[in-house]
Design brief:
The protein is an alpha/beta fold. It contains eleven helices and 16 strands.
């Protein structure tokens, strides 16, 4: 007897290379069935006409609500945007990690994982009026405590975060990145690196990253764009991907441009993961949420299958947690129910460029830890007899 069956949806699960009509079942917080005409459940939901994917993973969020001025409420965001796992990228450092864990993560219904910032207090100085880069002052770097906290919290911490660039690290160049890499080596974890305006350059940062490390804000506008003025991909970017560096979108307030994305896609360079970098300064635009960021790629010509792949299985692999982002039997019991609406939709990037797209991905419902966790606004999907 399953706890829940989602019946008759178009199931897109790139982890199994599947795209077609199937039923998905959940029991005890895990996927317990994947096939046609599944029967025997305490609860069955008819999702025919909708798309069922593994629970969406947003690889770049800021959900330390109340602990930093950037933080948003994870449960509210996840329930409405179809995200089942938020990966917080450096909101907390070793100095305030215990508060993030105790007061936010442990109270959240949605899953939260985190990259721990090498800076003592994480991203503490950013709101609408105050913007102080935490990596500007090297006295804030706390590698010893960062390694200790990361090692003691491996159930939730998936890597080390550092931010470099004019806004985040001033004139320090790659010095904060060098310290963060030492921590990552010490604890055997991957690193995620933010990049904004130079210094340092895109090329300098990529040269230092190791296989499995992540460059976020990968499709940012000039300066520090991965594309040349001629519309080609910079050789350093191609070389980094070849040796295993991973590229994450991290849309945010200032880090995603249609011009850059068109150039990268025209050269066949898709991001490894699509993420929103949602926080207080961009949740009302231009990023909005994960499904809006996914919709932008759909409207730029990326197939729905590839868009889902970059928000599920690829993210699970980036996290080194293959049970995430999959509907294989035994995987985490998370799923997202989507529709793709047709019409005219106005999308905007961080430079102010507008794109009128003809499709929009909309979250219609969520299964979290094997239970129906639909948005409050949803009146669809009544229970049906098994």
């Amino acid at each position: 007897m399953h706890d829940l069956i989602l019946k008759g949806g178009r199931v897109i699960d790139p982890s199994q290379k599947h795209d077609g009509i199937l039923d998905v079942a959940f029991t005890d917080g895990k996927v317990s069935g994947f096939g046609k005409d599944l029967k025997g459940a305490k609860e069955t939901r008819d999702v025919s006409g909708c798309i069922v994917t593994p629970g969406l993973i947003d690889m770049h969020t800021h959900v330390y609500w109340g602990g930093t001025s950037l933080g948003i409420d994870a449960d509210e965001f996840c329930r409405m945007s179809g995200v089942t796992t938020s990966v917080d990228t450096g909101s907390a450092g070793p100095g305030n990690w215990p508060g993030f864990r105790k007061h936010v993560i442990e109270h959240s219904q949605a899953r939260i994982l985190a990259y721990l910032h090498v800076s003592h207090a994480g991203i503490y100085g950013f709101d609408s009026r105050v913007m102080v880069g935490e990596s500007v002052d090297m006295r804030m770097m706390n590698p010893i405590a960062c390694a200790e906290v990361a090692d003691a919290n491996r159930d939730l911490i998936v890597g080390i975060k550092v931010r470099v660039g004019l806004h985040a690290s001033g004139e320090q160049g790659t010095a904060p990145l060098n310290i963060a890499l030492q921590v990552a080596e010490e604890v055997g974890m991957p690193l995620m690196c933010h990049i904004d305006h130079p210094p340092p350059s895109y090329e300098e940062v990529l040269e230092m990253l190791r296989p499995g490390d992540v460059l976020t804000h990968a499709f940012r506008p000039f300066p520090n764009s991965p594309a040349t003025a001629q519309g080609t991909v910079k050789p350093a970017v191609l070389a980094a991907r070849k040796r295993g560096v991973l590229f994450d979108i991290g849309h945010g307030k200032g880090s995603f441009a249609f011009k850059t994305t068109r150039a990268m896609l025209a050269n066949g360079f898709l991001p490894d993961t699509i993420s929103s970098d949602v926080h207080q300064l961009c949740i009302n635009g231009p990023a909005f949420d994960q499904v809006t960021t996914m919709s932008k790629f759909l409207c730029l010509g990326v197939s729905l299958y590839e868009v889902v792949k970059a928000s599920t299985v690829n993210a699970g692999m980036m996290l080194k947690r293959p049970e995430y982002g999959s509907l294989k039997v035994g995987a985490l019991g998370d799923a997202t129910i989507l529709t793709v609406r047709e019409g005219k939709f106005d999308y905007v990037d961080v430079t102010g460029e507008h794109l009128i797209g003809n499709q929009k991905i909309v979250s219609e419902g969520v299964v979290l830890k094997g239970k129906w966790w639909h948005p409050k606004r949803s009146t669809r999907f009544p229970k049906v007899n098994s």
